[in-house]
Design goal:
By secondary structure, the protein is mainly alpha-helical. The chain is 64% helix and 3% strand. A hairpin with a 5-residue loop joins strand 1 and strand 2 (53-54). The protein is elongated.
Length: 143
C-alpha cells in the first residue's frame, strides 16, 4: 500500500503516487510471466507453452534436464525389472544353498507379491509429498 503521511499532501506527493500506480499498472498490463525457470536454454527443442517439455528425442544425448531424466528413468526401470525377475533362474541354486522346502518357496513368493502391494499403498502418497525421484532412488539402493 502507498500511504501519504503528511496531513496536507502536496502536488509532489500526488505525482509520486501517480507514478507508482502507473508502474504497477504497467507491470500488470504486460502479462509478463513471473515464473522462475532453472535453465535459460536447452540442448533440444522445447515447448514453452507446456512448461518447456521436450518436442524431440535425441537418444545419444545426455544433456540436462530432458535427456538425462529420460536415460536415468529407463536405466532405473531396467535395474528394478532385472532385480525382480533375477530370482526365477536362480531359484534352484538358492533352494539348494538355503535348504528350502517347496512350501517355503511358495511362502516367499506370496510374501514378495504381498509386499509389492503394501509398498504401492505406502509409496503412492509419499511420491506425492516427497517426489518420485527421491523415493525411486531410496528403494533401489535399499534393494
Amino acid at each position: 500500500l502507498i500511504e501519504i503521511t503528511s496531513s496536507h499532501p502536496t502536488s509532489f506527493d500526488f505525482c509520486l503516487l501517480e507514478k507508482k500506480l502507473q508502474i504497477t499498472m504497467a507491470e500488470v498490463d504486460t502479462g509478463a510471466p513471473t515464473e522462475w525457470k532453472k535453465y535459460d536454454s536447452y540442448a533440444l527443442e522445447v515447448d514453452p507453452d507446456q512448461d518447456d517439455k521436450a518436442k524431440e528425442i535425441k537418444l545419444c544425448n545426455f544433456s540436462r534436464p530432458h535427456m538425462r531424466a529420460f536415460h536415468c528413468s529407463w536405466i532405473g526401470f531396467f535395474i528394478a525389472f532385472f532385480i525382480w525377475f533375477a530370482i526365477a533362474p536362480l531359484l534352484s541354486e538358492i533352494r539348494d544353498t538355503l535348504d528350502l522346502s517347496k512350501e517355503e518357496i511358495w511362502t516367499s513368493s506370496i510374501v514378495g507379491v504381498g509386499g509389492t502391494i503394501f509398498m504401492r499403498f505406502l509409496l503412492g502418497p509419499l511420491c506425492d509429498k516427497v517426489g518420485s525421484r527421491i523415493l525411486f532412488t531410496i528403494v533401489l539402493c535399499a534393494a
